[in-house]
UniProtKB/TrEMBL annotation:
It comes from Marilutibacter penaei. Belongs to the N(4)/N(6)-methyltransferase family. Residues 100-261, 418-478 form the DNA methylase N-4/N-6 domain. One of its GO terms (molecular function) is DNA binding. This is site-specific DNA-methyltransferase (adenine-specific). GO terms for biological process: methylation. Residues 219-252 are annotated as: Disordered. Its EC number is 2.1.1.72. Residues 219-228 have a biased composition (Basic and acidic residues). It is an enzyme of class 2 (transferase).
Amino acid sequence: MTQSDKPTDLLARLGQLSAPELRRLLVEHLTKRKLGLTWERNAIEHDEALNADVVLPQLVPELNHKPVETGEKFVHRNLVIEGDNFDSLRLLKATHAGRIRVIYIDPPYNTGNKDWVYNDRYVGKADRWRHSQWLEFLYRRLLLARELLAPDGVILVSINDENRSRLELLMDEVFPGRRIGSLVWRTKDTGNDLSQRFSHVHEHVLVYANPGFIFNGRPTDRKKFRNPDDDERGDWSPQPLTKSHTYTERGNTYYPIQNPETGYWYPCDPDNVWRYASEREIRRRLDNDEDAVAAALDGLRSDTIEQLIEKKLIYFPPCSPEDVMRFDTRDELLAAIREGRGPILPKKKTPLLRENLPDLDFWIGKPIGTGRPSRKEHWTARPEEERLAPLSSWIAGINEEVNDDDEYIEAVITMRSTRGGVATEEVKSVLGGKAFPYPKPLSLLKGLLEQATHKEDTVLDFFAGSGTTAHALLQLNVEDGGQRRFILCSSTEATDKERDKNVCRDVCAARVRRVMAGYNGSPGFTVDQGGEFAYLKLNKLAPADLPFEAKTDSAAALLSLRLAHAVWEFGEGGVQHIARADDYDILLCADVNANTVDELAAWPKAHGVQRLAVYCDRPVALQEALEERGVDANCHSLGEALLAGQVGGRA
C-alpha cells in the first residue's frame, strides 16, 4: 500500500465513491474479523486491479523452444509467461481454473535488501509500509492462485524464518482449513549473524492443499519384514509401542507390561508412554466399577494391550535368564538406580526406572526383562496401496545422518537437499555465469515434485526466477518417464536504472532452453523428453477496445489455452484450428468473408469430423451461412469468449 492509500485519504474520497464501491467498503468494514492478520489494504483498489482490463497472451515465436525435427506447426504444452505475475494469474484464471495440481512458489522474502521490486522500484527496509505492501502484494496473487488449484491440488511456498509467521497467517486467510504443515529445510551449516549468538540456518516450505491431496509416499521396504519367531501369519515388521507423551501427561498409559509366556516384566518409558490402553490399568483406576469400566472400554478406538498380547501381536525380544534383573528389596532397587544398573532403553541408555516415579515398589521382586516389546505389523495386514511410508517434515542435508533413537521406528521418507549456496553454482553451470540471486537447489525442487506430483500433472510457478522448477520437473520426467507440464511466470524485473533487464527471457527461459537441449553436466537430457515451451508476453486491453484491437494471434493463443490447455504455433490463413473434442473441431475465424465460409464448409470432409465449433466476430451471420451449406456448426462470439473469466469475474 502506498502512502496515498492510507485510511485518511480514503475518508477524503468518500464523496467521490460510487454506490458499488461504498457497498464494498461497508461490507469489508462489517465483516472484518477481529482475530487474525491485519494489514493496510484497499479492497476497492484490489477489485479495480482485478477487473480493470483484459489480459491477452502474445506468442513470441523466436523465443519459443521446440524439437529441431518438428515442422512449422507445433503444439506447446509448457509455457513461459513474461509479465507481471498478477496479470499472468488473471490470464490463467480464465484458462486453467481448477486444473493446476501443484503450485510451487519462492516469493520475495521482504528482507529490505534490494531483493524485491514492486511498482518498478526496490522496497527497502526504511519503507514504513513495507510489510503491508508485501502482504497485499502476495494476498492478491494467492487469491487468484487458489482458483487455479485442482480439487486434489497443493500449493508449496518457500519462506525464511523471519517472515514465516506473517505468511502463514496470510495463507490461513486465503486457504482456510487447508493447512497441512510445513517442511523445515536446513539451508546452510552455519549462520553469519552471531550478534546474539543465534545462528539462522533453516527455511520453511509451507504446505496448503485441497481435501483430495496426499503426498505420494513410498512403498514400504519389503526387506524390513521378517519372521524371527516363525509366526504362522508370515513376515512382519516391528512397530513402536510408545508415543511422545510423558507419564505426567498421559498417566493412564503409564503401566508395566508382562510377557505371559516367560513371566518377565517390562517397565514403561516415563518420557514416552505406551500407545495402547490397558484394561488392567483402567480397572485399577476405576476401582473395578463394572459400568464405568465397560463405558471406558467401549470408548477405545483400538485394542487394549491385553487384547494385542492375546492375539500374539506383541513381540517380546529374547531374554536369557542370566540377563533378567531382579531386586528383592527397595534399598537394592534404589541402589541399582543410583548406580546405573537398573533397566535402561537399549539405544538411548536412559533409565526406565527413577527414584521419583510412582509405584516404584511394584518392581520389588519382579523379574525384569531386557530389550523392548514391539507391535507386529504383518505384511498381509494391509493392502499394498496403503503400505506407504509418509513424508517427514524434516528436509535433511545430502550427507546428513538421520537417526531415530527409538528401539523401533516407523518408516518415513526424509527428503534430502543440498545447501542453499549450491544452487548458485547450478545456475552458473547452465548459463555460464552468476545470473540470479538466491536460487533454490535443484535437489529441493526435485524432491518436492517427486512427492507432490503425478506423472501427468501441470505444475505452476508464478515466481519462476531462474527456472529451477522446470529444470527439476524435466529431470524427474527423464527419470520416471513422466509427462509433467510446467507453467512458469516471470517478470523482466526492469527498473528505471535497468530498463533493458529481462530476467524472464535471459535467465528463466534461457536456462530451461539449455536444459532441454542438453548441456555439459546434464547427462540424459534429450529433446524428446518434454523439450518444448511457448514463450508468451502479455498485452492488456480495455474491454471496450477488445473488438477493435485484439489481434488474431492473441485471440488464437487465448482460446487454445482455455480449450486445449496448450498453444499452437499458428500458420497463415483465415481459419485457425484450436482444438479437437470428440467428433468436432474448434476453430477461430478472424474474418468472416466468402473465402473463410468456403474453407469452413469444406472443413468437415477435409479433416474427418462431423461438426464444427467456430469463434468469430459475426456468429449469427456465419451460423446462417454455414447452415445454408449444410454444415453442422455452432458459432460463438469471439468477443464474449475473450472476456470470459476475466473482467467482472465472468466464467
